[in-house]
Design a protein that fits this description.
It contains 7 helices and 2 strands; from the N terminus they run ααααββααα. The protein is mostly helical.
Length: about 140
């Protein structure tokens, strides 16, 4: 992560030298926001484990739909992350652009883990007798 911030800093320096030195202050503010956001996020943990690994939605934790919901949902588009509203209620928070750190953590909590991720034992089984679709999934994940 630090390497990406250094690369961003180098690109900002090149931009300021080549195009518009007056933009230097604004770009420095953006760089400071990014650095502060990353520093604070790295220091925060929930129960000494990263929230991104254990609290994402999976099929096993989503409650089943009530009876008759299939008829209702057939007329409704599937939900996506862009339809979720997350609101921060404190003015002075660590943030990058308009995304505060608590909003970032909430997004991580509702983010779905990839269904296509396979464990090493699954990969060994696929290598022994894979189906065509399994081959494509395995190759795309490598």
């Amino acid at each position: 992560m630090r390497e990406l911030v250094r690369e961003l800093s180098r690109q900002i320096d090149e931009y300021v030298k080549a195009y518009d030195p007056d933009d230097s202050l604004e770009w420095q503010l953006v760089l400071n926001e990014v650095s502060t956001f990353i520093d604070i996020d790295n220091q925060l943990s929930v129960d000494q484990t990263p929230i991104t690994l254990y609290y994402r939605l999976t099929n096993s934790v989503i409650p089943p739909l009530p009876m008759g919901a299939d008829k209702i949902l057939s007329n409704i588009q599937l939900y996506s992350l862009e339809e979720i509203i997350i609101i921060g209620n404190y003015q002075d928070q660590i943030k990058f652009s308009e995304l505060t750190l608590d909003m970032y953590r909430m997004l991580q909590a509702v983010e779905r883990q990839s269904v296509e991720s396979t464990s090493s034992s699954d990969e060994r089984a696929l290598m022994q007798s894979p189906a065509t679709q399994q081959k494509e999934i395995l190759v795309s994940s490598l």
